[in-house]
Amino acid sequence: MKDTITIQDVSKSFGKKTVLKDISLAIEEGRIYGFIGPSGAGKTTLVKMIVGMDAPDQGSVHVLGEKMPSLHILRQIGYMAQSDALYTALTGKENLIFFASLFKLSKAERQNRMAYAADLVNLTSDLDKKVSAYSGGMKRRLSLAIALIQNPQILILDEPTVGIDPELRISIWNELLRLKREEGKTIIVTTHVMDEAEKCDHISMVRDGALIANGTPDQLKEQYSVNTLDEVFLKAGRIVQ
Ligand SMILES: Nc1ncnc2c1ncn2[C@@H]1O[C@H](COP(=O)(O)OP(=O)(O)O)[C@@H](O)[C@H]1O
Ligand SMILES: [Mg+2]
Questions:
Q1: 134, 152, 170: which is the final residue of a domain?
Q2: Among 158, 128, 126, CA closest to 143
């Protein structure tokens, strides 16, 4: 397995506050990585470094062998930010068309991708409504559809299932698992929900800007001699304090 993303000794401060402390992590191709941690832990900051939206103070991030930020690599990443960046005066469909137009898709491909993405997030029947009339969950779903539009090899999803009902959450997770299994996509998901963490191949627990535990769900439970990831998180947090 080759590494798709390499994070090396990354640190970041905002003013006097250190938000990421010396993070190193190798992300293998074709797997789902979960960045798990409470609000304020530094997950979004780390994700922004990977997509090249923010630069580390120290250390480096490489994606597909290129140092980030790299415009060329951005095309291969589907990024869903934690806060929705949508055109609210436009309809859902118009948003999809706009974001699809940023990528060099043929017309047929664009139609296919739009239909696939809208269906996946169960928005097909709401596509002609203005986004300003969407609920919070619908906006999250549209953001996810946009992240998938260009069929990227790497998906980076920052809290993708917040505000999404349980049934749709399950179908989104099933699709992420399928994308990994059948299409070899590399997927990073941030979450603070431990039952989602269980579905990941690899978990990186983040607390106060530090990586406090790293491994497969089973490895972590074994390492800390516990039965749940919640307990791993509590134990790992206590040990580093
Ligand atoms: N642009 C910024 N300026 C100042 N502080 C920031 C900025 N972005 C994030 N932070 C702070 O960094 C910490 C980590 O935030 P974040 O990465 O959003 O955590 P998480 O996504 O795990 O909730 C928080 O204390 C947050 O207030
Ligand atoms: Mg966040």
A1: 152
A2: 158
